[in-house]
Hints:
Layout: H1 5-25, E1 28-34, H2 44-60, E2 69-75, H3 80-93, E3 98-101, H4 105-118, E4 122-124, E5 137-139, H5 144-158, E6 163-169, H6 172-187, E7 191-198, H7 206-215, E8 219-223, H8 228-239, E9 246-248, H9 253-259, E10 267-270, H10 279-292, H11 304-320, H12 325-334, E11 337-339, E12 342-344, E13 354-361, E14 367-376
Parallel strand pairs: 1-2, 1-3, 3-4, 4-5, 6-7, 6-8, 8-9
Antiparallel strand pairs: 10-13, 11-12, 13-14
Helix pairs in contact: 2-11, 3-4, 5-6, 8-9, 11-12
Amino acid sequence: MNVPKLFRLTLSAGVCLIALGSQAADPIKIGIPVGLSGANSVVAPSVVQAAELAVEEINAKGGVLGRKLQLEVADDASGAAGAQKAFDSLIYQKKVDALISMETSAARNAGLPIVSRGKVPYIYTSFYEGKSCNPYMFVNAWVPDQQVAPIVDFFMKSKKAKSFFLIGSDYAFGRGMLEFTKNYIAKKGGTVLGEEYLPMDGSDWTAVINKLKTAKPDAIITSTAGGAPNVTLTKQLRAAGINLPYGNLAVDEGTAKDMGADAEGIVISGSYLTNIDSQKNKDFLAAMKVKFGANLKTPNDLSVPQYEGVYLYKAAVEKAGTTAADKVIPALAAVSFEGPRGLIQMNKQRHAPLTMYLGQVQKDGSIKLLESFKNVDPGEQCPKLK
């Protein structure tokens, strides 16, 4: 059929406009590989809730570059094998534009090679043992350089502790945190009388507790996989009558509340507490309550960085003007977001200076603030990455 030239041009332009309109309407997909099962299952629901609130707020204001955000959640089972499946599914099947997630170090380490192959920006929102570096990864949570000193210093000054016993889960986080802690204790003139580990899925701490009793330290510091191991270890310590000064490098506020009376007295150090007295934090807590009501999981030092991570990604995409990884990656170091924890910018070797809080768990699960430390530098983490 001989179609007039003007009609052909009009038709062609119309098809292009429809195609462009369809492309603009496609959502920006954010993948969340997280431990819905396994060790992190205690805290994962709060992390997903935080991400859901951030996406809802952003979409209500028009999304990012005129596109809505869409979450794709995958269970990494809190470990390496599950993470490989979750990362592969999110990157290659779901074709997410970015990954933003709180995970165990085992899961993160297993997923990073897949991130590199897929060339997907990855914001890691979990506190961890430090020095994990990848061209596609940024971190907005704390590392030992920011977290350990407040606890050790408090025990040495306030409790006159000179000797310590260390207990951890046997994987990268547990060993990495306690290696840093051991070196810091030695640097401050203290002594480590014992260092014991249990596999991530282990639940019987009897032999470890017996060694603790024999050692007779002035204080204990633990670094277990976030969630279930914290609960089992603390419960068994209390049942064994252990009432020493107890610092936990891995317990979040939500898990502390789940522990009930067993958690009373535990000293923690982190970048977020629900009682931070700022308008941003009050607004965040109010919005979480409105959205989730009776189903709300306690916001904590693992979930709040997830909320802020979504906003940091939004800021980076808007600065880059695109979701293309090669443009978003440099933008992630340049942007900032003021959220419940204050102003967050991942500009220190892809990590963030953070205000840290030293607190102690009370009988009702709340945290009594003992001291705060402004803008603590993360130290040397990834000097070879720009």
